[in-house]
Specification:
- By secondary structure, the protein is of the alpha+beta class.
- The chain contains four helices and eight strands.
- It has two domains: about 80 residues, Ribosomal protein S6/Translation elongation factor EF1B (Alpha-Beta Plaits), CATH 3.30.70; about 80 residues, ACT domain (Alpha-Beta Plaits), CATH 3.30.70.
- The strands form two sheets. Strands 2-3-1-4 form a four-stranded antiparallel beta sheet. It has a four-stranded antiparallel beta sheet with strand order 6-7-5-8, with helices on one face.
- A hairpin with an 8-residue loop joins strand 6 and strand 7.
- It is globular.
Length: about 180
Amino acid sequence: MSEAVDDEPTETDGGVRSYTVRLELVDEPGELLGALGPIADHGGNLLSIHHERGSVTPRGHIPVEIDLESPPDRFETIVDALRGAGVNVMQAGEGRYGEQLSVVLVGELVETDLSGTLAAIEADADATVVDLSLAAPDGIDETASARLRLDVASERREGAIAAIRAIADDRGLVLVEPLPGGEA
């Protein structure tokens, strides 16, 4: 059973921390709103919500990723409250990165080893690939495009883009970079 929580957030260990919660929601009106209530009710502060109605999990539900801030002593209470409200929490933990950016790679992606390209980005750019959309309208042996959504540390953004640029150049791919202050 969860403990009762005061209305005022408490500060422990120096204040709030960033967390990411990955949920799986039924595609029905009000499901996202129902998932946000337990976060607010237990002292969480929303940073971002990534909700892709066009994507589905293997169980046919909608994946939702929520970034939030919370005092460390409240986070488990938030996760427990989500589960208590019937929300399927697929993953929950401390956020490692402070920012997301999107880039597009164009070229013979499959021919140049897409999984190797992704591994190189994660290793060399110190980024995590959180979403990938691949389009190959003329088949896998022709030019394709991949939109990557990446988590990066805010202070590493420029270095990450430079590393991705070098990986793309090395593999003969065209990189569409995010616009300053925006996304690709």
